[in-house]
Amino acid sequence: MKTTAVILAAGQGTRMRSNLPKVLHPLLGKPMLWYALKTARQVTGSAPVVVIGHEADSVRKFIGDQAKVVVQETQLGTGHAVQQVEELLRGHSDQVLVIAADMPLLSPETLQDLINAHASRMSAETPITMLTTQSLDPRGFGRVVRDQSGRVVAIVEEAQATPEQLAIRELGTSVYCFSANWLWETLSRIPLSPKGEYYLTDLIGIAVSENLSVQAITARDSREAIGINTRVHLAEAETALRRRINEDWMLKGVTIIDPQNTYIEPDADIGPDTVIWPNTFLQGATQVGAGCTVGPNSIIRDTRIGDHCEIFASVVEKAVIEDNVDIGPFAHLRRGAHLAKGVHMGNFGEVKNSYLGPGTKMGHFSYVGDTTTGSNVNIGAGTITCNYDGQKKHPTEIGEGAFIGSDTMLVAPVKIGAGARTGAGAVVTKDVPSHALSVGMPARVIRKLEKSD
User: Fold this and answer.
1) What's the chain's Rg over C-alpha atoms?
2) Does the predicted TM-score (pTM) go above 0.70?
């Protein structure tokens, strides 16, 4: 039984009051359309078809090769939108799953329930299986009307509902699974609404009028039916999505001290026994190993963190952090920073495009850029690598076991040999040989170091 998903993403979303297409508004770091694309592919095993319209070029650019695209040139309702895919899908699918791009909380489990339920009763007598939800907040959804035997007979739009119908708590979510052949034969019979549009909800009435059965299943969680039409809805959906993600990680063995104030994006990965403190953001494709402590007040973006690390009140971007590293508070790792096993990075330090070798200690108030260090280097407080001459960036190399005194300025390009030392306040403009002591401004080598030194 082949099922193809159709994602409706053509609407203008005027209530968002934005120049950005509604379906591209970010939700936990991803455009809301990303969630529909991912879930649709997950439950059907194939690329979905996305119906686009408003700002079509921008939406198409985001979709890329994630889905097939059909343009609804004039937005004349959901029924008209599905008509646009008929030529592409007729004869190629047994079932058609229709979802909206502005309902990003629909779970794969719920949609799989819908697909399975329709497949189990797929016949000429049951051409529609619809998803409903039970909620005290109608959110503008139509009411599901049933007869005395409990059969679905209609969906009544909120604007046309009687007071008795408005009291109904079963809501239609506009998510459907259709028998494909029946859908293609019936779409053209949808009547024109008073607003001059064609609505999929009218297919319910058509089916019932032909003595056909309409099956309904209920969403696993009413929050899945949150549709986004305003920025208030966007914030509501993000809160629900964040709660879902955080609960999932806690069930996998991660301790989250304050889930309401922890922000974990969907591509992040966290090892067991890690503790996440409040006001921490794990963004992008961040990976956190096992047994770590992150936060409070930390932002980690597109970074790989090993096991048993501590990151306290710091910002880390596009970096690599190996095992047993401790950072912060108030440290900043920028793109290309790589801290090897056992590195310590003190407060108010900054590392950019640099490798700190195993066991290296970097004191507070220091900046290291475009630098490679060996193992067990000591970088004293206030050390600065002067890597930019106004036109180009230049490298600094610091050998194994070197000791860089406090307030040293390393004017790149420069090399500090293994076991070498600089005096406090030194301005190093020339290479320092291994096991030599360099002091002064500009620094000069004053003697070779003995083992006792």
Assistant:
1) 30
2) yes
